[in-house]
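We close this part of the discussion by returning to an individual protein. The amino acid sequence and the backbone structure tokens for this protein are reproduced below:
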Amino acid sequence: MRLDRLGGEGFWSEEGRPHIALTVTSKDPRDGYGDWHTAHEMGDALEHIGWRVSYVERKGDRWYSLPDDLDYLMVLVDLYDISKVPAGVTTIAWVRNWTERWVEHPWFPDYDVVLASSGISKGIIERRTPKRVDALFPIATNPERFSRTPLETAYEADYVFTGNFWGELRTVDSLEVAPAETFAVFGKGWENVPRAARYARGASPLRRDAKGLLLREAGHRRHGLPDPALRGGQLPGLRRARRGHAGRDQLPGRGAGALR
């Protein structure tokens, strides 16, 4: 019956299009959480093929108030307790970052489907849990968002870093900038970090071009994951340099020398 509905042409598909909900930290993109962009990139693609898509947010634990006619729940945040999901709803874990946290939750083995954003995360999951990863499912892979746009001089700099500060030290905290060079940091929270505040330029401008070198950590570097704030590629057209090769080499079609 489920396969029939997925195909959309059989007897059971008359019950309606498949309905999926995706978890987000907040439904408001102004709050600056990267999972909003990833969830909507996925949701937009599913709506394009005829699915019904809902978004449920962590704020106020409202993400446990699920639609009555839900078929699938795609979880993007490890903190979601799937033991609270009604019977009959297929649960999908999309492990994009913080892999160690995902696998430590007691409900993780109960997911129906597990997707991993990198081979490194896949290895952690399969070594530390009884679950097998059903598919590698990287983020930031929409080629339509990796297109060049007209240069905007407001974002011009020698070095650009994009990524939010959530209290954990990151590469940008120790970056040394020469006096003759300009450095710009886009993301939430950097204005409160003493060594980075002078470079902070607010939230990441989406789908903008810039001149210079983009420094982007590979998400949680140990896992080889791209920045979760990417919605298929913020600031396209930049020359990119990553600290370490793990995240870069996990991207589809990216070999050791693929990024300049």
Notes: The chain has five helices and ten strands. The longest helix spans residues 34-48. The radius of gyration is 19 Å. The chain has two domains: 2-136, 143-250.
